[in-house]
């Protein structure tokens, strides 16, 4: 979908990003009283404030993500490198910022899109959306039963794969009254696969000589989270980006009926269903850009800021995928996630190449 929620923070937050010097635990290989570890964490005073080398490295990476040289895949790679080596010194702040920053970025991308083209893309994607969502949920149920996983974990991973990754999990989890560890397992599985997709999909698209329209449609169906969908499509081309974003956000609206169905299936009463309201912000921005001439000069600036926001979002996500997060999921949830992902990716790819 649309929302990207960090694996350890399924709930949205409106708290602004304040890079206070709160330290996160370093990876195990550095968590020793070695000279290198002490060097990373020894505060040094500059301009009247104390900073560690670890925080300085994070800051330099973040500044680079604001430059034209940083693309979404590069930003994600930098975050992953940071997470696997010295760790993220601002883990709590980046978790809180990721959700809101992604929403801003998606709304900003609406200023670069045409409503007429978006409607056409949505029409093409509706059949794929319906079939793939229900097919994934059914396959997930039987595959999860075969693997012996708990019903909640299976349903969360299936919804994340079928609809919109972390956003769907964050919305469905409270309906299920899922435990924190169940949410973490599902989110961790989806986010690792998102990272792989962001790097793998563009080369596959070029190798198969997919058109911009084909690739955008494939991304929207086969990649879990909106952040990775937009990142992969942006790397492929502007038309692919427009198709992918439109179809993915239309797909994200399926959170509502799936959440209602979940409450009925699992016999949960009195639960609240989270509606992804920011999607309406994206639609509003697109309508302004299409039908209000006075707003059109803002489009280049808003889309530029949105792409920067997306790049920073992916850096934050990568910085949160430490070896501890990846390893804590366990093997079976990854098997389920990979199985569902491979099936939906290959099936949709075959249909798109032969029918679109």
Automatic annotation (TrEMBL):
Annotated compartments: Cell membrane
Membrane topology note: Multi-pass membrane protein
InterPro entries, per database record: UPF0324_pro (IPR018383)
A Pfam family it matches: Cons_hypoth698
Protein's UniProt keywords contain Cell membrane: yes
Position of the signal peptide: none
Keyword Transmembrane helix tagged: yes
Transmembrane parts of this sequence: 56-81, 101-119, 125-144, 156-177, 183-203, 215-237, 249-266, 278-299, 305-327, 334-353
Keywords recorded for this protein, A-Z: Cell membrane, Membrane, Transmembrane, Transmembrane helix
GO annotations of cellular component type: plasma membrane
Main location: membrane
Similarity field: Belongs to the UPF0324 family.
Protein name from the UniProt record: Putative sulfate exporter family transporter
Organism phylogeny: Bacteria, Pseudomonadati, Bacteroidota, Cytophagia, Cytophagales
